[in-house]
């Protein structure tokens, strides 16, 4: 967290955070956000766009689908959030106009905008927010309504103080609460919808949010059509617009083949193609199409190494792996210059990320030397052997990232040159979830694609403390890492936390615990040139709330 | 097709060959199949490139003298990938046919030969398999087994069991009723003897062209499964997989059409041979 | 026809019901072998950040940890009362899901069948009418070519030529006339080959018969011979081929719908397979079995009416022997 605004909200632990400061901060510091100047003749109004997407996910139960990489697009237009988080991780007000917290970060008070309504006519008041907080935290497990996974587990309860004030209580200090409200899981849904059973919630047409668009029609596996809500008047100030949207309707249409999505946009049959193949981007740009490769706030794409599994229990082998990957070649071959080299194991746009490129430089000689020192001798076939065992690495391509297989193949070639025997396994989403886990017995490296909002939560995910995920299977073995984790959790201010986070990044990379590949772009947009003004938020979703068709 | 248990004796090899009635297209088909088999046995003789390691800087170049089928998105020679992929495509289709013929043939043989409740039980089983659309069955089975080419082959094989069982059964019944088999019964031949000596050879003779035909179809079905993503992970290069990868790069059409052409020519040749087998036997 | 026919029809109906039930159980068994289930796979999405313990709690809360046999009993007894259950993936009733997409697939399948029949009869007609020196051989090669081309390649080719180059249809509106037309061609071509092979073989067989020779010696034109004498006897086995392959249209809709981006049974299968949505898969497999059984029942009951040479008692065997040959395009007529 580097901005003035969040510094206020998290470090000073004072009781007050004035919305006016936040709004003005957002307005004056934002350079990426286009501020649409309302044309006098209203020429920006109207128009319909078609957005081609790979899939529209599974169920539409809001809790279960809000984090879906596909359905998140629809929820982003149909529902609002309490907080807005922009592409740089900056937090600003939305439905919550301002908020306060106590000294220990266990009690938060949210002050809501008034006059906000859901599309079914229900008011978005304190009671509605309490209902949402409760279902985010607990879900209704017996009905198949899941909790929101990343919602703080330390949640205790929420109370509606009056119609526009909510007080939220936590069992333990929870600094990450406010940013979590801007995460894609935290969408505000009408209490009437929330009260419905799972099979009614699964019908998207019956769900009401408070967003700038409402669902006009939808068909499973085919499309969702949204139409503008004319009385919408509570957009996030940070995007420079609070009134109704410009575009009359947005249709999300499933076309599963990436090349067909792109070709449809090229031939003018649609306006946006999601997840194009990176190879095609260069020529698309040359043809004048808008190509957006926003990065989400989160981890870079890379491997969490299983330190329990030989030979990766040997730091030299891990360091050889770190030095044996030519990351520039990945970008040159599989991607385009729109992709950024990893500089750490978290994306460089995350507040608190620091540059450790020196640790990630391609150095095959160093890698070979390290392997020699570790006792791995090159055999006649070029594969290194120790104690009769070949130097093996089994990769499990991440099914959530389309380019994962190609990157794996390229890395297999690179590592092959220094004596690694790399095998690639590709599973579908179901099998991957079942068989490939952090620190799994046959999983030397888990390929990470994960977004988060607040870097402060990173350290505890890496270790096994507090329900952490123990990414490197270190358990409690690494006292240095654990000490850093505890200090980060206990840090009172962003200034205090920053050098600790820097140390953490340096340590994890130097130990070869995390092997970054590239910074991740999980959402690629190819857009027709006359569609302008869209905004990308902190989780890299495109919002067409501010967009318009140039005539 | 006549019911004989032995070849006609007294023909010289040359006469035999002539009696086979090999037309130019049949000869060409055999040549194609010979090349494909050679590819699968010794791919390194046909290409100096590596199927796995490419030159990233040469990615997506068009077909040329250096790269007959062009290069793919990682700069690998596509012709080489096709040659090296032959082994997997051919062997998986073979596995599918063997499963179909052996299991299906066995079921047909037993139910046709023994009749009675054996026939009834097998008939219901076959009815079930027959009633489920073949491709749907293959997709469900391959999901159960896991997404690998060999599993796609097994799934394809299972989906053809019903068909071969049917054919085998009707052939067996036909043979059983033939005069010479009745005669063998009367002469006191044991059931097993008759099954092995008369019924099996006759049934298998009529199943051979079908098996060859099924081989071609299996290549297509397995390619179809690979197209839907139920094939091997990279860097393997089954033909179906190559087409499937190629479809993501339609700006570079050779990535789809080169492996597609090889597949079509191979299957066409197989079908021609099957037809020839049917006519000349 | 009355009593024997009714007994026969009743017996066939009983068999049909058994086959459908067995197909339902078969699917359950196959899919139950699968590791994982749709619920867990959704929960394991890395963006969720659930721990293993939380996942186990959610699973238990929904009673998904029951023994397999208990689950089968529940689903089978529901199926018998006409309840197809709830989709595990989308939390919506399976019947609704299927109803939403069925019409699209039926349109695709029936227009595919129409395309297949048209192509098959055109090619077959050509083989009888076009003289040998003017490319009859080429026409005869068509079925084989059709049978050797992966239909996803045909589909990709058609989309690119007509969708993007000639702009005849919009790829994002796969239910439009031209898009449906080309999808029908894609799914119809392999079937046209099967039908054409049977048809050509039978036409050749009929053309060799004495009555055809007599007709020709009287100087009848090939076109007239085809229309008045050869067509009817040769076309009868086609009924059998259609009956046996119409279920395959359902299976093959998977690829065609994927390529053309149509929403139908095929794409529903694909989504359900990738998330192991057992209730949906069971329902679709049963649907396939129902269609297959029904169509064959109709063909069985029609066949004696169409071909007076076939008596009911032997009807079934005779038809199925022909069917076995016909399904793979054997030259049925040429066999002894």
Automatic annotation (TrEMBL), chain A:
<protein>
    <submittedName>
        <fullName>Peptide ABC transporter substrate-binding protein</fullName>
    </submittedName>
</protein>
<feature type="domain" description="Solute-binding protein family 5">
    <location>
        <begin position="90"/>
        <end position="462"/>
    </location>
</feature>
<comment type="similarity">
    <text>Belongs to the bacterial solute-binding protein 5 family.</text>
</comment>
<dbReference type="GO" id="GO:0030288">
    <property type="term" value="C:outer membrane-bounded periplasmic space"/>
</dbReference>
<keyword id="KW-0732">Signal</keyword>
<dbReference type="InterPro" id="IPR030678">
    <property type="entry name" value="Peptide/Ni-bd"/>
</dbReference>
<dbReference type="Pfam" id="PF00496">
    <property type="entry name" value="SBP_bac_5"/>
</dbReference>
<dbReference type="GO" id="GO:1904680">
    <property type="term" value="F:peptide transmembrane transporter activity"/>
</dbReference>
<dbReference type="GO" id="GO:0015833">
    <property type="term" value="P:peptide transport"/>
</dbReference>
<feature type="signal peptide">
    <location>
        <begin position="1"/>
        <end position="39"/>
    </location>
</feature>
<dbReference type="InterPro" id="IPR000914">
    <property type="entry name" value="SBP_5_dom"/>
</dbReference>
<dbReference type="InterPro" id="IPR039424">
    <property type="entry name" value="SBP_5"/>
</dbReference>
<dbReference type="InterPro" id="IPR006311">
    <property type="entry name" value="TAT_signal"/>
</dbReference>
<dbReference type="GO" id="GO:0043190">
    <property type="term" value="C:ATP-binding cassette (ABC) transporter complex"/>
</dbReference>
From TrEMBL, chain B:
<feature type="transmembrane region" description="Helical">
    <location>
        <begin position="125"/>
        <end position="144"/>
    </location>
</feature>
<dbReference type="InterPro" id="IPR050366">
    <property type="entry name" value="BP-dependent_transpt_permease"/>
</dbReference>
<comment type="similarity">
    <text>Belongs to the binding-protein-dependent transport system permease family.</text>
</comment>
<protein>
    <submittedName>
        <fullName>Peptide ABC transporter permease</fullName>
    </submittedName>
</protein>
<feature type="transmembrane region" description="Helical">
    <location>
        <begin position="250"/>
        <end position="270"/>
    </location>
</feature>
<keyword id="KW-1133">Transmembrane helix</keyword>
<keyword id="KW-0571">Peptide transport</keyword>
<keyword id="KW-0813">Transport</keyword>
<keyword id="KW-0812">Transmembrane</keyword>
<feature type="transmembrane region" description="Helical">
    <location>
        <begin position="20"/>
        <end position="42"/>
    </location>
</feature>
<keyword id="KW-0472">Membrane</keyword>
<dbReference type="InterPro" id="IPR000515">
    <property type="entry name" value="MetI-like"/>
</dbReference>
<dbReference type="GO" id="GO:0015833">
    <property type="term" value="P:peptide transport"/>
</dbReference>
<dbReference type="GO" id="GO:0055085">
    <property type="term" value="P:transmembrane transport"/>
</dbReference>
<dbReference type="GO" id="GO:0005886">
    <property type="term" value="C:plasma membrane"/>
</dbReference>
UniProtKB/TrEMBL annotation, chain C:
<feature type="transmembrane region" description="Helical">
    <location>
        <begin position="141"/>
        <end position="164"/>
    </location>
</feature>
<dbReference type="InterPro" id="IPR000515">
    <property type="entry name" value="MetI-like"/>
</dbReference>
<keyword id="KW-0812">Transmembrane</keyword>
<keyword id="KW-0472">Membrane</keyword>
<protein>
    <submittedName>
        <fullName>ABC transporter permease</fullName>
    </submittedName>
</protein>
<dbReference type="Pfam" id="PF00528">
    <property type="entry name" value="BPD_transp_1"/>
</dbReference>
<keyword id="KW-1003">Cell membrane</keyword>
<feature type="transmembrane region" description="Helical">
    <location>
        <begin position="12"/>
        <end position="34"/>
    </location>
</feature>
<dbReference type="Pfam" id="PF19300">
    <property type="entry name" value="BPD_transp_1_N"/>
</dbReference>
<dbReference type="GO" id="GO:0005886">
    <property type="term" value="C:plasma membrane"/>
</dbReference>
<feature type="transmembrane region" description="Helical">
    <location>
        <begin position="94"/>
        <end position="121"/>
    </location>
</feature>
<feature type="domain" description="ABC transmembrane type-1">
    <location>
        <begin position="102"/>
        <end position="303"/>
    </location>
</feature>
<dbReference type="GO" id="GO:0055085">
    <property type="term" value="P:transmembrane transport"/>
</dbReference>
<keyword id="KW-0813">Transport</keyword>
<feature type="transmembrane region" description="Helical">
    <location>
        <begin position="176"/>
        <end position="196"/>
    </location>
</feature>
């Amino acid at each position: 967290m580097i901005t003035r605004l969040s510094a206020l909200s998290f470090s000073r632990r004072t009781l007050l955070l004035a919305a006016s400061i936040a709004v003005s901060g957002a307005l004056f510091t934002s350079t990426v956000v286009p501020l649409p100047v309302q044309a006098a003749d209203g020429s920006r109004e109207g128009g319909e766009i078609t957005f081609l997407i790979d899939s529209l996910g599974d169920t539409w139960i809001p809790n279960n689908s809000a984090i879906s990489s596909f359905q998140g697009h629809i929820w982003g237009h149909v529902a609002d959030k309490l907080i807005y988080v922009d592409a740089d991780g900056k937090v600003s007000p939305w439905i919550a106009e301002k908020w306060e917290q106590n000294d220990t970060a266990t009690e938060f008070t949210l002050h809501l905008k008034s006059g906000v309504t859901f599309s079914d006519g229900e008011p978005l008041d304190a009671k509605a927010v309490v209902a949402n907080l409760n279902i985010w935290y607990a879900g209704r497990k017996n009905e198949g309504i899941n909790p929101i996974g990343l919602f703080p587990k330390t949640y205790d309860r929420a109370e509606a103080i009056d119609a526009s004030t909510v007080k939220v209580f936590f069992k333990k200090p929870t600094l990450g609460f406010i940013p979590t409200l801007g995460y894609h899981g935290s969408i505000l849904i009408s209490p009437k919808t929330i009260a419905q059973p799972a099979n009614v919630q699964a019908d998207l047409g019956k769900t009401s949010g408070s967003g700038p668009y409402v669902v006009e029609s939808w068909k499973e596996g085919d499309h969702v059509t949204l139409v503008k809500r004319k009385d919408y008047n509570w957009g996030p100030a940070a995007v420079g617009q609070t009134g109704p949207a410009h575009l009359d309707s947005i249709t999300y249409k499933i076309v599963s083949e990436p090349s067909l999505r792109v070709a449809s946009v090229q031939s003018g049959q649609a306006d946006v193609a999601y997840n194009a193949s990176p190879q095609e981007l260069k020529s698309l740009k040359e043809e004048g199409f808008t190509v957006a490769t926003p990065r989400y706030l989160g981890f870079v794409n890379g491997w969490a190494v299983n330190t329990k599994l030989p030979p990766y229990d040997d730091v030299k082998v891990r360091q050889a792996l770190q030095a044996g990957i030519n990351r520039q070649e990945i970008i040159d071959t599989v991607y385009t210059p729109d992709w950024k080299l990893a500089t750490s194991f978290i994306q460089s746009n995350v507040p608190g990320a620091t540059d450790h490129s020196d640790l990630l430089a391609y150095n095959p000689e160093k890698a070979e030397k390290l392997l020699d020192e570790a006792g791995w001798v090159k055999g006649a076939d070029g594969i290194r052997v120790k104690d009769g065992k070949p130097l093996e690495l089994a990769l499990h391509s991440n099914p959530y990232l389309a380019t994962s297989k190609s990157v794996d193949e390229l890395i297999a070639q690179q590592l092959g040159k220094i004596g690694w025997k790399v095998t690639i396994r590709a599973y579908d989403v179901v099998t991957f979830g079942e068989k490939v886990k952090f620190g799994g017995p046959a999983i030397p490296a888990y390929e990470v694609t994960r977004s988060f909002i607040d870097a402060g939560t990173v350290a505890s995910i890496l270790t096994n403390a507090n329900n952490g995920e123990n990414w490197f299977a270190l358990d409690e073995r690494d006292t240095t890492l654990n000490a850093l984790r505890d200090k980060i959790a206990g840090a009172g201010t962003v200034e205090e936390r920053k050098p600790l986070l820097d140390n953490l990044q340096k340590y994890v990379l130097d130990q070869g615990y995390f092997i970054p590949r590239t910074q991740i772009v999980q959402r690629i947009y190819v857009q027709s040139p006359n569609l302008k003004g869209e905004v990308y938020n902190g989780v890299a979703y495109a919002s067409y709330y501010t967009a318009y068709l140039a005539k | 097709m006549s019911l004989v248990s032995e070849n006609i004796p007294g023909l010289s090899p040359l006469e035999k060959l002539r009696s086979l009635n090999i037309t130019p297209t049949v000869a060409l088909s055999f040549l194609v199949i010979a090349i494909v088999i050679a590819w699968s046995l010794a791919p390194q003789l046909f290409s100096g490139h590596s199927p796995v390691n490419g030159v990233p800087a040469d990615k997506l170049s068009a077909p040329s003298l250096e790269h007959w089928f062009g290069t793919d998105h990682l700069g690998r020679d596509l012709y080489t990938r096709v040659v090296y992929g032959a082994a997997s495509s051919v062997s998986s289709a073979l596995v599918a046919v063997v499963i179909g013929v052996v299991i299906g043939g066995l079921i047909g043989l037993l139910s046709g030969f023994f009749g009675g409740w054996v026939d009834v039980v097998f008939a219901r089983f076959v009815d079930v398999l027959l009633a489920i659309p073949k491709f749907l069955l293959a997709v469900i089975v391959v999901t159960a087994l896991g997404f690998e080419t060999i599993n796609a082959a097994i799934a394809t094989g299972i989906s053809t069991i019903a068909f071969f069982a049917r054919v085998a059964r009707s052939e067996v019944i036909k043979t059983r009723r033939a005069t010479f088999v009745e005669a063998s019964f009367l002469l006191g031949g044991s059931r097993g003897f008759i099954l092995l000596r008369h019924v099996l050879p006759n049934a298998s003779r009529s199943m051979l062209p079908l098996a060859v035909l099924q081989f071609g179809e299996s290549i297509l079905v397995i390619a179809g499964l690979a197209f839907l993503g139920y094939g091997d992970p990279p860097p393997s290069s089954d033909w179906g997989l190559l087409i499937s990868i190629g479809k993501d790069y339609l700006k570079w059409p050779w990535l789809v059409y080169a492996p597609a052409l090889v597949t079509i020519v191979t299957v066409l040749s197989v079908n021609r041979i099957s037809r020839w087998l049917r006519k000349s036997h | 026809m009355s009593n024997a026919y009714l007994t026969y029809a009743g017996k066939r109906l009983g068999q049909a019901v058994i086959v459908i039930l067995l197909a339902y159980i078969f699917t359950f068994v196959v899919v139950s072998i699968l590791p994982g289930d749709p619920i867990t796979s959704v929960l394991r999405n890395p963006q969720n950040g659930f721990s293993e313990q939380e996942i186990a709690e959610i699973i238990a809360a929904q009673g998904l940890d029951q023994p397999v046999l208990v689950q089968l009993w529940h689903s089978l007894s529901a199926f018998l009362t006409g309840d197809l259950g709830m989709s595990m993936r989308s939390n919506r009733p399976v019947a609704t899901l299927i109803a939403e997409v069925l019409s699209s697939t039926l349109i695709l399948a029936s227009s595919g069948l129409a395309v297949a029949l048209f192509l098959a009869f055109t090619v077959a007609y050509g083989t009888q009418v076009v003289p040998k020196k003017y490319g009859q051989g080429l026409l005869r090669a068509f079925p084989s070519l059709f049978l050797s081309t992966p239909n996803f390649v045909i589909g990709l080719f058609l989309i690119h030529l007509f969708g993007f180059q000639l702009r005849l249809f919009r790829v994002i509106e796969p239910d439009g006339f031209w898009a449906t037309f080309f999808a029908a061609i894609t799914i119809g071509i392999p079937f046209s080959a099967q039908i054409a092979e049977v048809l050509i073989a039978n036409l050749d067989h009929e053309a060799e018969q004495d009555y055809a020779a007599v007709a020709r010696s009287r100087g009848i034109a090939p076109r007239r011979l085809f229309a008045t004498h050869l067509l009817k006897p040769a076309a009868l086995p086609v009924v059998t081929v259609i009956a046996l392959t119409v279920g395959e249209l359902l299976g093959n809709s998977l690829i065609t719908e994927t390529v053309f981006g149509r929403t139908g049974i095929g794409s529903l299968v694909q989504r359900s397979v990738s998330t192991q949505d057992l209730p949906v898969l069971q329902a679709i497999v049963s649907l396939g079995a129902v269609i297959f059984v029904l169509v064959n029942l109709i063909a069985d009951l029609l066949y004696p009416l169409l071909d007076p040479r076939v008596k009911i008692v032997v009807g079934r065997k005779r038809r199925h022997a022909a069917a076995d040959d016909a399904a793979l395009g054997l030259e049925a007529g040429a066999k002894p």
